[in-house]
Structures are given as C-alpha cells and as structure tokens.
Automatic annotation (TrEMBL):
Entry cofactors: Zn(2+)
Record family assignment: Belongs to the FPG family.
Pfam family, one: zf-FPG_IleRS
InterPro entries associated with the record: FPG_cat, FPG_N, H2TH_FPG, Ribosomal_uS13-like_H2TH, Znf_DNA_glyclase/AP_lyase, Znf_FPG/IleRS
Name the UniProt record assigns to this protein: Formamidopyrimidine-DNA glycosylase
Superkingdom assignment: Bacteria
Lineage summary: Bacteria, Bacillati, Bacillota, Bacilli, Bacillales
Domain spans labelled Formamidopyrimidine-DNA glycosylase catalytic: 2-136
Source organism: Paenibacillus vini
Length: 272
C-alpha cells in the first residue's frame, strides 16, 4: 500500500502538471470507487480546475476551484499514471480525468481504494481522526516521545496506527526500526527516552530519504519520470528475506505479527 513517501512524490509531481487546467472529460469505469452517482460525479467535475494538491497521511486531496475536494486513497494495489490518450497504460483503469486537450490522469487498481468528491468540511471531518504528520510542523522530539509514552505495544503496531502518527505503513515501519537498531517487535513501554529519541530521528531520516528517492511504486507517474520507484533500491530490510544485512551481514529474517509481515536483521536489531 502506498505510504507517505509514495503519496508525497505523487503530490509534488502532479502539482507541476495539472494545476489550473480545466477538467474537460471524466471517464468512470468503476462506480464503486466513487461516493456519488456516476453522472453526478462527472457533471460536478467537468469544467472545474485543480488549484492545489495536498497530501494528508496516505491520502491526496485535490482542491478544486469551487472549494470542493477530491480525496484519493489508493489502498492496496492502487497506482496513478499521467499521460496522453495515446500514452494510455496497458492496465485496466477505474477512473480517468482529462485535463485540457489531452492530459489524462489514470487511476489504476482502485479495487479497494476510492476517489470521493466532498465539501471542504466533509473532507476535513473524514480525516480528523488522523494523528500528526511525522515530518510536519506539529511533530518534534518532545511530542513524539509523549505520544510513544502513552502507548503500549510494539514499535511496528504503533507506527502503522494512523490515529497515532499519519502516513507510515508496513514497509517504512520496518525500515525505521532498522535505522534505529531496534526490532519492529520491540515494546515501547520498555524503551528508554534515549531509544525513543533515536526512533524519532530514524523516522525522520527514513521518510525524508525515501521521499527524495521517489518511493517504491512499481511504475513511473509519467513517461519521462525517472524518480518514482527509486526507493525500491533503498530499502535495507523490507522484502529482503534471506539477504545479507547491509550493516552487520547477518541474514535478514521475515516473520509475522498481528497478520503483518515483519522484516529485520537479528544481528544488529535488538528487542527490549
């Protein structure tokens, strides 16, 4: 599932291409991905412009020129592609939005994901449960330590809880734990303040590095995009079962916790 770095990469790139262009056509191939009747959705969007693209946690919010919001959650398997009608990807699409004469934003793999049209207040309310952004202005060392002190359970369980901190999922929770030298299964209640501060610094370092690396999406956003997916090569432990740890050389192992895959290096990640 796309996490903060993937969605932030999309936000940055889309903001360079689609802002202030009129929406000239909307194609809906899967009405279940919407929150409105298909005809209403199409009529509401046609003629509008996206004036700003915002990311909140794992969501993108497209701010329209009439004050409404398109809110996107790709969920598992979701992708975006931006190109011409002639450049159409060889994948089934659930929604297509045409900007201007021939620039199409293709929504792919929205079997679990959605694209909802909401008022500004409805959009705000729908995301009100989310915790602070890990790289945002409302997060710092002190706030992070206080948040962790209020929680019991493993590093991974807490980091992927969107009500605690927004935007982190399976992949980057494991990468953050590795960067901190702790196992994803380590219990927060057993950790010292120094270890929690180290976890905070690891969280920032990993998310910044992976965002700058383009995230781990499997296909580029555009035909000229050479950034998206670059973080695939930056992961140290996630999906690296059986490989040698880049830090200590021990074999990376895979286990499960609460139905989630967990990857770590037993040689240099300790459990509390």
């Amino acid at each position: 599932m796309p996490e903060l770095p993937e969605m932030e990469n999309y936000r940055i790139q889309l903001s360079k291409h689609i802002l202030d262009l009129p929406i000239t056509e909307v194609v809906v191939n899967r009405e279940k991905s919407l929150n409105l009747d298909q005809e209403v959705f199409v009529n509401e969007l046609t003629g509008r412009q996206v004036i700003f693209v915002e990311r909140r946690a794992k969501h993108l919010l497209f701010h329209l020129d009439n004050g409404r919001r398109l809110i996107l959650h790709l969920m598992l398997g979701g992708l975006l592609y931006l190109g011409s009608k002639e450049d159409r990807p060889s994948r089934s699409t659930q929604i297509e939005i045409v900007f201007g004469d021939n620039l199409v934003l293709y929504f792919i793999g929205l079997r679990l994901g959605y694209l909802h049209l909401l008022s500004a207040k409805e959009a705000e309310d729908s995301l009100a449960h989310l915790g602070p952004e890990p790289l945002g202005r409302k997060m710092n060392e002190e706030i992070f330590v206080k948040l962790m002190r209020k929680r019991r359970g493993s590093i991974k369980t807490v980091l992927v809880n969107q009500d605690v901190i927004a935007g982190i999922g399976n992949c980057y929770a494991d990468e953050i734990a590795f960067a901190a030298g702790l196992r994803p299964t380590a219990k927060l209640q057993n950790m010292s303040e120094e270890e929690l501060l180290g976890l905070y610094r690891a969280m920032r370092e990993v998310l910044v590095e992976m965002t700058e690396g383009g995230g781990y999406m499997e296909m580029p956003l555009t035909s000229e995009d050479t950034l998206t997916g670059g973080a695939n090569d930056l992961c140290r432990v996630y999906d690296r079962e059986g490989e040698a740890c880049p830090r200590c050389g021990d074999q990376i192992v895979k286990t499960e916790m609460n139905g989630r895959k967990v990857f770590y290096s037993p040689g240099c990640q300790h459990d509390r």
